Amino acid sequence: MGSVCKMLRINILAWMVFLSLACVSVRATVSYDEKSFMINGVRKILISGSIHYPRSTPEMWPELIQKSEEGGLDIIETYVFWNVHEPSPGKFNFEGRFDLVKFIKLVQQAGLYVHLRIGPYVCAEWNFGGFPVWLKYEQGMEFRTDNKPFEVAMEGFVKKIVDMMKSEKLFEPQGGPIIMAQIENEYGPVEWEIGAPGVAYTAWFAKMAVGLDIGVPWIMCKQETAPEPMIDACNGFYCDGFKPSKPNKPKMWTENWSGWYTPYGGALPYRPAEDLAFSVAKFVQNNGSFFNYYMYHGGTNFGRSSGLFVTTSYDFDAPLDEYGLPNEPKWGHLTDLHKALKQSEPALLASYPTVTWPATNQEVHVFKSDSACAAFLANYDTKDWAKLMFQNFPYDLPPWSISILPDCKTEVYNTAKIQRKTDKGKMIPVLSGLSWQSYNEYVPSAGDDETYVMEGLWEQVNITKDYSDYLWYLTEVVIDPNEGFLKSGQWPSLTVMSAGHALNVFVNDKLLGTVYGSLEKPQVTFTGNVNLKEGVNKISLLSVSVGLANVGVHYEKWNVGVLGPVTLNGLNEGTRDLTKQSWSFKVGLIGEKLNLDTVAGSSAAQWAQGLQVSLKQPLTWYKTTFDAPNGNEPLALDMYSMGKGEMWINDEGIGRHWPGNTAKGNCNNCNYAGTFTEKKCLGQCGQPSQRWYHVPRSWLKPTGNVLVVFEEWGGDPNRISLVKRVV
Ligand SMILES: *[C@@H]1O[C@H](CO)[C@@H](O)[C@H](O)[C@H]1NC(C)=O
Ligand SMILES: *[C@@H]1O[C@H](CO)[C@@H](O)[C@H](O)[C@H]1NC(C)=O
Ligand SMILES: CC(=O)N[C@H]1CO[C@H](CO)[C@@H](O)[C@@H]1O
């Protein structure tokens, strides 16, 4: 329909006014060939950036989108996050940070396009990869394979989103900004691993998606087996060597990793701007016509939305930092790159490159048409500068760099010559010396109210359904008066094996110890000597989840919690196995039950004040109130003096804090030159993986803001301060 509209516009000039009115509601379709996408029949090099709407606030969106536009983006790309939209079956939420339609309309108002990655599997370092936890417990469910219950659920959600977009007229042929959509996500490797059921599932979801008739192309990333008419796209740190799976497809790079995420316990990865710009120039000189920065703004994993062991910050070393401020020099350097590419666009779109090799490690791509010429000069040497001769002129190229000459003469840009300031953002204290109150959790006992008694140890998420990070495993051991250790003082040792992710062991209400895992190894084992007394002893294990896995074949089947064995060694009988005895289970904390995380719940509770306030005590809730600091700089909490837990302000979940988990890794200075990997450039070693926690301005009232912190390990709240982010 759209192309008919365009043809008429060209052929019947006299009717133009009338027809262009008619064209407002029926715009041209999005098409493509092996060279590029075409919108309204016009070829484009499309520059895209990922911004995930739940990772910032609606109040931040206009500015983020504005800065994307200033940075030279054409497209904003986002996933759709099923688990925030359907927290329980059939109950939908599209409010506030989850207002997808509002986000897309704001992008449209700024004149940008949208790539909507519906998934609904998103991975994204997001809790459970974006699937609602309840989905796992539906009858006969198996994720991401040829499984009827899964396919019915997936189709229902995808259709719901597509219908919503259609009824809001958001697809491009309807006059909206959505020019492409993605189904599934990086399914290629899973299909390869699981074989026939994966192949059948791929055929099913491709057909299902096409049947929804969205009027714009469907993308499948990292999946060479993408059936017609799906477009297979590349994800990675470099994609210049990528070949589309079919000859009629444009060369697309859906995830160019601008940096990397941080796991708790890991060092802070960063990717030098020189290398990121180099990877983009290299992609475009090799026929690339669509690329996307993953992420352009990473933002924050508020509340409990992080995937397994992922920090609350999702900064990603993206061009816009977690707070939405330009991450210099990266933001500016890429903005300059985009200008150079746009200047070269006429030549890039009208021709294929001629490639020559003037010297070792040197490469020249020339795009030449009747009316335009653009050249890319590359030096791949990782150590030395090159003097590259091109059309009898010398060009000086730093190591590992590409120069762009939009007119085949003037170097307007080199990927390693940064023309921008490099000042890093700073955190400046604005409010400290807050006055705190405290509330102590108590250690529950087997047989308390609201405990379930079962034989043996049970998987954690099956019991909590992820409504809380916390599950108590409670049991008792009876010590006979004849036990030898009562006289020898050679205490028995307790061993507890857990599938993860962190564990606090209490014996007779006293903390015996804490252990925690990591992204590489979520499983933990606790071993400690224990001073048991004659008679009944309480064993209370507080198992803590730190986000659910988001990636891996059948990651939905990974276990959490104490699955044993749990043993006592050094008794008269030798080893006593507690694994199969009777255990009681208690979901969540007392404070959670009392809703201390809300303004209403926390004001109804009795808090200790003044000298009674508990310091450095495990399992303690803290509360304070404060007035919003002046100004409009972004704010964060400096949690350096705390261990591990969760934070809320005015009923909003700030996230999990864990400054007690320090960054391990090799933080040697990294050189931008040479192939980048996520382990190459690391910072913060020996410091907390995350010290500062974003508190969006829009969550604050002028006065009387209620901040609540739950501290698991014990910390000093008096040293918590509010800081502002300044660049
Ligand atoms: C660009 O695409 C053309 C046409 O498919 C192909 O012949 C050529 O080898 C490609 N060049 C590069 C550098 O990838
Ligand atoms: C969940 O727990 C129930 C018992 O409460 C058990 O019957 C079921 O098999 C468990 N399911 C999974 C997936 O672990
Ligand atoms: C599906 C998948 O794993 N995609 C990931 C590619 O890498 C980025 C960076 O970590 C992830 O966030 C994507 O979700």
From TrEMBL:
InterPro entries listed in its UniProt record: BetaGal_gal-bd (IPR048913), Galactose-bd-like_sf (IPR008979), GH (IPR017853), GHD (IPR041392), Gly_Hdrlase_35_cat (IPR031330), Glyco_hydro_35_CS (IPR019801), Glycoside_Hdrlase_35 (IPR001944)
Which residue positions does the secretion signal occupy? Answer: 1-28
What family classification does the UniProt entry report for this protein? Answer: Belongs to the glycosyl hydrolase 35 family.
Reactions catalysed, semicolon-separated, are:
Hydrolysis of terminal non-reducing beta-D-galactose residues in beta-D-galactosides
UniProt-recorded name of the protein: Beta-galactosidase
Keyword set, alphabetical order: Glycosidase, Hydrolase, Signal
- Top EC class for this record: hydrolase
Ranges for domain Beta-galactosidase beta-sandwich = 364-418
One of the GO BP terms on file: carbohydrate metabolic process
Q: Does the keyword Hydrolase apply?
A: yes
PANTHER family, per database record:
BETA-GALACTOSIDASE RELATED
